[in-house]
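JOB MANIFEST
job_type = single_chain_structure
chain_count = 1
residues = 121
[input]
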Amino acid sequence: MTTEAAPPPGSAGTPPATPTADDYTSVQQSAEFGELRSSYRSFAFPLTVAFIAWYLLYVLLSNYAGGFMGTKLFGNINVALVLGLAQFATTFLIAWFYARYAARKLDPQAEAIKARMEAAE
């Protein structure tokens, strides 16, 4: 039984260099990483606040506007049921929207940072 020797550094099949703590610190302080973080925050924070406000509106309406929430729209379907289902729809819509945003804007920025870190030896 023979074992193969590890390929020489820099050749195909060699795992990328392992970044050090100093490498991570320098990347974290770079303008490129700051732009990535800003892009993420400019998407995530406003949508999070909007969704929490929308959820709290639903909860407050459920607690304090029972007459409105009990208003029948058609058959046994009332406002509360429609708004409750809209909570689920909103959740999935935000997840889909984030996936598109991340693929278009965040992932390319993150890949560039990752490639730069893996290329540095």
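[summary]
The beta strands are 72-74, 77-78.
The longest helix spans residues 79-119.
exit_status = 0
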